[in-house]
What we know:
Layout: H1 5-14, H2 21-30, H3 36-39, H4 43-56
Helix pairs in contact: 1-2, 1-4
Amino acid sequence: MTMPTVERAYALARSGQFSDLDRLKDRLKADGCRAVDALLAARSIRGHLEAICAASFKPPVHPE
């Protein structure tokens, strides 16, 4: 069974790979999640995900 879209959004936000909600939503859509915009439209969910992304984001380190 696949993870529900909202649950997956929270897991991805905590992963530290996404600097903002737009990038996270793009990833969900690329992974085949449906109704991403509608499911993440609630202000409370958007606020939580944006805060998690901001707190967790780790920019990739490029070796010199």
